[in-house]
Every structure is written in C-alpha cells, then in structure tokens.
Amino acid sequence: MLKAAIILLLLATLVSLFSGLFFLVKDEGRGSRVVNALTVRVILAALTLALIAWGFYSGQLVTHVTW
Asked: Most buried one in 23, 26, 53, 65, CB count within 10 A?
C-alpha cells in the first residue's frame, strides 16, 4: 500500500511538472498559475520524501544492498 502511494505521488508530481510547463508556455510567464504549479510540485515532492522516510523507518521499505 505504501509503494502504491509513493508511485501515485510521483505520478502526480509529473502531472504538476507538465502542467507548469504548459502554463509557462501558454501564459508566457505572466500568470500566477506557474507559481501555483511549482508550489504543488514542491509539496508533492516533500510528501513523497516523507513517505519514503517513513517506509524505511517503519520497515515497510527495505534495501537489499549487501554493502
């Protein structure tokens, strides 16, 4: 369930990235929609990092690296 939430947040981050690009091209940088898309993208990235950290802390995410 945690992995699915992380994947969904990453996909939402990509959607926000491309919506910001669309608004930048369409509004030519004069509107506030680009700033809103950036704000949403930063919040989604922070939530993604928090979920990954929680997953490692709780043991739901583990690495299989032997070094």
From this structure: 23
Q: Total structural domains in the chain?
A: 1
Prediction pTM value? 0.84
Residue 38 lies in a domain: yes
pLDDT tens sequence across 46-66: 999 999 999 999 989 888 887
Q: Which domain holds residue 36?
A: 2-58
Confirm whether 64 is domain-assigned. Answer: no
In three-state form (DSSP H/G/I as H, E/B as E, the rest C), the secondary structure along the chain is CHHHHHHHHHHHHHHHHHHHHHHHHHHCCCCCHHHHHHHHHHHHHHHHHHHHHHHHHHCCCCCCCCC
Residues in the chain: 67
